[in-house]
Amino acid sequence: MTEPLPAGSLDGKTALVTGSSRGVGADTVRDLAAAGANVVINFRNKAPRAEKLAREVNEKYGVQTLVVGADLTDPESVGSMMGAVNDVFGGLDLLVLNASGGMEQDLGENYAMRLNRDAQVNVLEQALPIMPRGGRVVFVTSHQAHFIRTTPTMPEYEPVALSKRAGEDALRERIPDLAERGIDFVVVSADMIEGTITATLLNRLNPGAIDQRREEAGSLLNVAEFAREIARAAVDEIPADNERICGDVSSFHGTD
């Protein structure tokens, strides 16, 4: 399989991918590093996986890496992360807002909204002082969240979908300000992704849910395929509606 981006196309750039110790985030790090980007690997509680990924991309692609543990719902923790990024790399060219959640049972009331809306906005706000003109912000979401206003989703996922859509809306409100700063913004959305933690949890709560969704959609992207779309969104021309919709959406009603 060829790399999603030309080798060297991100030489000299620095990319931070939130929630990137595993899954879609980790594969996005691999794709960006393959294009020459120095990468910041963020994790909440998977330090060994994050360190292993850093060694992998450093050895394979020769890029610089920085591994930073940060709880995105804690503004002080996020501030420390951005300070470390600036100390090591002198700035940040690409911010990929990949981390999400809300199906966990042990992280407190309103965790989905705190992570998927409030934290996303805070991470952006704290990144902006170290992002130069020509930078880009990529927000990763799902069709189930993006189209939640017009297409109901499975009850088990609804709190996550509503909070992620709220996060997307809050970030979109910043587009005029970002444009003044010379920073691009794009939303990348896909259906349920085969092999993710979210898909596993949904299948546990609602047995057969992923099989049913795959049958309805015809096919679902896997982790590597979705990561490639995110990596491309980091460099492709921004669509007029600031969104990159991946795969078939015929079973979703309406557009935003």
State the gist of this model.
The chain is an alpha/beta fold and 256 residues long.
Q: Can you describe this structure?
A:
With 256 residues, the chain is α/β, with parallel strands linked by helices. It has helices at residues 23-34, 47-61, 75-89, 111-127, 143-146, 158-172, 175-181, 197-205, 209-217, 223-233; strands at residues 14-17, 38-43, 65-69, 94-97, 136-142, 184-190, 243-245. It has a 7-stranded parallel sheet, sandwiched between helices. Helix 1 (23-34) packs parallel to helix 2 (47-61). 46% of the residues are buried.
**Largest sheet, spatial ordering of strands:** 3-2-1-4-5-6-7
Strand fraction equals: 5-15%
Summed over residues and divided by their number, the pLDDT gives a mean of 90
Measured between the Cα atoms of the first and last residue, the distance is 34 Å
Query: Radius of gyration, rounded?
Result: 17 Å
Tally of individual helices: 10
Write the layout of secondary structure elements.
Layout: E1 14-17, H1 23-34, E2 38-43, H2 47-61, E3 65-69, H3 75-89, E4 94-97, H4 111-127, E5 136-142, H5 143-146, H6 158-172, H7 175-181, E6 184-190, H8 197-205, H9 209-217, H10 223-233, E7 243-245
Parallel strand pairs: 1-2, 1-4, 2-3, 4-5, 5-6, 6-7
Helix pairs in contact: 1-2, 1-10, 3-4, 4-6
